[in-house]
């Protein structure tokens, strides 16, 4: 019984840590239930729309794998290798078509080499993708603050039976990017080092979206959830 109680307590702590309370100090996406999630997001953040400008054949990653697949180059200079099963679909895309980069959302993301997707807004279709290059002018982390307790982000504390006890401030850090934007990250979840190249995108849910920073590339690529602090 004691063991089960401890397990329940651990689960409630994990759940509460994952459900941060976001306030108006941070930009978040809340999309009306009647809207298409992607279209609703792009209406609010039109700069997320990129353009397909060129493609080339991939010579393989640093392990010598994935040779021969198409790589999509966007107008921001980023390059994305197309999943083998989506090569035929992509072959019909035309240069100049509008594209949105998103994160695939299942519990198996950590096992995937192609963790992301490119959504062709013009054609209303997806291809799965792996990031293989950032542009020369890509964003990077220029400074990281010391941990502090946020006045706007909090997490719930629960007892062994799952009853809410209180909300307490989250311990967070600020990451400043080379474009001057500030991104908030829960300290216990880790953060990025200075000079790390990143790609800003979102993970879309049914009626909302979470900003994310993609870092590293090819199969080693990862991403972390962040909050964007508005000026």
The H-and-E topology, N to C, reads as HEEHEEEHEEEEEEEEEEE
Structural class: mainly beta
Q: Round the mean pLDDT to the nearest integer and report it.
A: 76
Strand content: 35-45%
Distance between the termini: 50 Å
Percent range of helical residues:
10-25%
Instruction: Tell me the quaternary state.
Output: single chain
Put simply, the count of helices is 3
Q: Tell me about the largest β-sheet.
A: 10 strands, antiparallel
| Count of extended strands | 16
Integer count of domains: 2
Global outline: globular
State the low-pLDDT regions, or none. Answer: 1-35
Radius of gyration: 19 Å
Structural summary, described in words:
With 231 residues, this protein is mainly beta. It folds into two domains: 2-28 and 140-196 and 225-229, no CATH class; 34-134, no CATH class. The protein is 13% helix and 43% strand. It has three helices and 16 strands. The protein has helices at 2-18, 37-44, 87-90; strands at residues 26-27, 29-30, 50-57, 70-74, 79-82, 98-103, 116-120, 125-133, 139-144, 148-158, 164-177, 182-186, 197-204, 208-215, 222-225, 227-229. The strands form two sheets. Strands 1, 2, 9, 10, 11, 12, 13, 14, 15 and 16 form a ten-stranded antiparallel sheet that branches. Strands 3-4-5-8-7-6 form a six-stranded antiparallel β-barrel.
């Amino acid at each position: 019984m004691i063991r089960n109680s401890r397990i329940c307590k651990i689960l409630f702590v994990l759940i509460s840590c994952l459900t941060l309370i976001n306030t108006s100090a941070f930009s978040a996406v809340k999309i009306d239930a009647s809207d298409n999630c992607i279209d609703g997001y792009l209406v609010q953040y039109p700069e997320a729309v990129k353009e397909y400008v060129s493609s080339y054949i991939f010579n393989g990653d640093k392990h010598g794998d994935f040779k021969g697949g198409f790589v999509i180059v966007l107008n921001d200079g980023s390059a994305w290798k197309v999943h083998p099963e989506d090569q035929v679909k992509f072959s019909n895309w035309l240069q100049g078509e509008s594209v949105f980069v998103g994160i695939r959302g299942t519990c198996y993301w950590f096992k995937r080499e192609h963790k992301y997707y490119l959504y062709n807004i013009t054609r209303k279709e997806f291809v799965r993708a792996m990031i293989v290059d950032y542009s020369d002018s890509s964003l990077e982390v220029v400074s990281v603050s010391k941990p502090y307790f946020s006045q706007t982000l909090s997490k719930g504390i629960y007892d062994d039976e799952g009853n809410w006890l209180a909300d307490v401030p989250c311990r967070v850090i600020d990451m400043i990017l080379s474009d001057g934007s500030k991104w908030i990250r829960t300290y216990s979840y880790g953060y990025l080092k200075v000079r790390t190249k990143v790609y800003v995108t979102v993970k879309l849910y049914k009626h909302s979206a979470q900003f994310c920073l993609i870092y590293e590339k090819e199969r080693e690529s990862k991403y972390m959830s962040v909050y964007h602090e508005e000026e």
